[in-house]
Amino acid sequence: MRQALMVSGLFLILLAGYAVWLRKQAPQPQTEPATVAAAPSSQPPPSSSSPRHDGSFVAPRLAAPMDEATLMRQIRENVKSNPVLAEALAREGRQRFPDSPDSDERDALLVDALINQQRIGAARSEAYYYFDHHPQGRFREHLFYMTGVHPVPRGPEGR
Asked: Which domains does the chain show, CATH number per domain?
């Protein structure tokens, strides 16, 4: 019994040390807004913001307009390295190109950007949006695995 308690205590100490190490390895939130070449919107959406140390939010500044291909490339390039910017670009793309052939991928990348910001609730909400707007989308399985959200059947015929 005594040996089991010692092993348990050692395990808890190692676990706590690992948690502290992980916290130190986590990237720090941005304190200054990012600037990128993108179309300005009249009002940036409230969820396209980056957290500051004091808990307030700053929306990334989007500069010059981009065509859709450039916008999609920027989203893909930033979804992991700068997910706040990728989120803002995806939301801008949704506003400027709502019925685009790339909307399926753009909306899935938006979910990925939110996950990469550790904003799981927002990611799940966007996954529901994805399934509502892209019921046969190419990224359904990926979003299900990432968020646990799956399409809800729409009645007896699935409509």
From this structure: 31-147 (1.25.40)
